[in-house]
Amino acid sequence: MRSIQITGLLVALLAAIAAADTVVKKDGSRIEGKIVERKDGFVVVETADGARKLVLSSEIEEILESPLEATEDPAPAPTTPDATPDAAPEEEVKSDAGRTEVVRAPPPDLLALPEDISVSARKLYEKGAALVKSAQDAKRPGERASLASQAISPLTQAYRKVRGFHQAYYQLGIAHQIAGDDDKGRKALRDALALQPNFYQAMVEIADILNRDKEFDEARRFYDRALEVAPDYVLGLTSRALFCTRLRQMEQAKADLDRALELEPDNEMAKGLLEQVKKDLEAPAWENVYRYESEHYEVETSVSDEFARQVADTAESAYELYDLLFDAAESRQNKFAIICYDSQKQYVEAGSPPNTGGYYSPLIKKLVLFRYEHWEDTLNVINHEGFHQYLDMYLQGAPQWFNEGHGDFFGFATYERGRLMPRPNAWRLKAIQTALKSNREQPLSRLLVMSHQQMYNPRTIGTNYAQAWSFVFFLWTYNGGAYRPLLSKYFKLLRKGADIEQVYDAVFKGRIDQLESQWKTYTRALKLSQEDIELLKRKKKGTGIGE
């Protein structure tokens, strides 16, 4: 009888092993366990230790399922973002008019800690959460990354002490994001979501990562799911609005922002973005509107059909070179928008910044300019602001010297038969040469880690812009382009999520003295052509271009 019992147990164990499912991911890794939930776009796997892992269908190469059927129903599985959310409790309320209205109760606060959590786990969690908050509030990128990295250890210790500690996984996910590792951030947040299927805060954080990675369809599912669970979650509303502006879905963005401001009337971020969205939705008051669509651009202008096509063709030529030079070709879900007014007067009357020759708005993803008397001036603005528009697709919040320096670099370049022909920027060269004569330039070690606020310091902005252009020009053209690989390396490290100080250390720090000496000598010797001198004269006449 005893041997029969042992044999039966062995058979059951073997059957359990044989019944395991295997999810093979595209990166070659495998997750073995039992698939306990399967939805459109997701599966949830319960492993032998009881942990549950949420796997996106886009990550899966194949699923090797057991041929055996489970004899018992599996344990209840976490809901995925595609599933119908659990209904929140509802209650009937009598209105003043005597009507009965059904009001949906707010979702529970999933970040609140349970009272019975151990003292040691609570202390570790609170320490980690406080470091995450400090990292979010810090102004310097290096300080943000350092504080976030310090939060990882106590939060990891906290979730190891308490089974199912979804709050710790959530904070850990945010810490990894700030520290520059979106992959680990996404994993921690998905672990939190597997433990709490209606964890709407985690859904929004996951959606933000997917948005940054341009996985737009999945990002939309997570945003929508979060707001099904918590329709009044203001951060979710503003985050989805930003996502919609990126895809130029302005009506949905406006609806989300209107609702966010109903809930939080003093939300400055929502007010500022809504103003931009409303302005975008208002068609220019033109008697005649001419539109032209190319492969990557949608142009609207009040000038003519021929001019609309000329602007689009110019932007396309520059786009091809950006992709070639940065090796960053990538498919897009929506086209770049360009608005071109017939005159500077029309441009300013429409509400554009008065002392500008054109601008790109990263909030509404639109390039706005006006037609200049000379086509070459119009071309300079298209190429300058067009680079900002292009770069924003890859690096939201790119370092100022890199972004503005390249804008001025491409703005003054010419393109012949698909080749980039760099030339000195007539508006910046004189300024940086004057600054070098009086030693008013910034040390490169400072310029290359400047924040937006530092770059735009009213006392030094002109010199900062000129120096950023001159250093970019130097890196592209010195000694036949000997330093171009540094720019490529810099761009690729930023795309991987490294912060400005980390990338500076990796690319420039070890050779900064040599670069500074060569850059100064090279820049002092640059000269303008007669054509460039004529452009400089036009600027002095007050065209507005080049400011």
Using brief descriptors, characterize the structure shown.
547 residues, alpha+beta, SH3 type barrels, Serine Threonine Protein Phosphatase 5, Tetratricopeptide repeat, Neutral Protease, domain 2, 3 domains, five-stranded antiparallel sheet, five-stranded mixed sheet, 22 helices, 14 strands, 54% helix, 13% strand, globular, disordered N terminus, disordered C terminus
What does this structure look like?
The chain is α+β, with helices and mostly antiparallel strands. The chain has 3 domains: 63 residues, SH3 type barrels (Roll), CATH 2.30.30.100; 163 residues, Serine Threonine Protein Phosphatase 5, Tetratricopeptide repeat (Alpha Horseshoe), CATH 1.25.40; 251 residues, Orthogonal Bundle (Neutral Protease, domain 2), CATH 1.10.390.10. 54% of the residues lie in helices and 13% in strands. Strands 4-3-2-1-5 form a 5-stranded antiparallel sheet. Helix 11 packs across helix 13. It is globular.
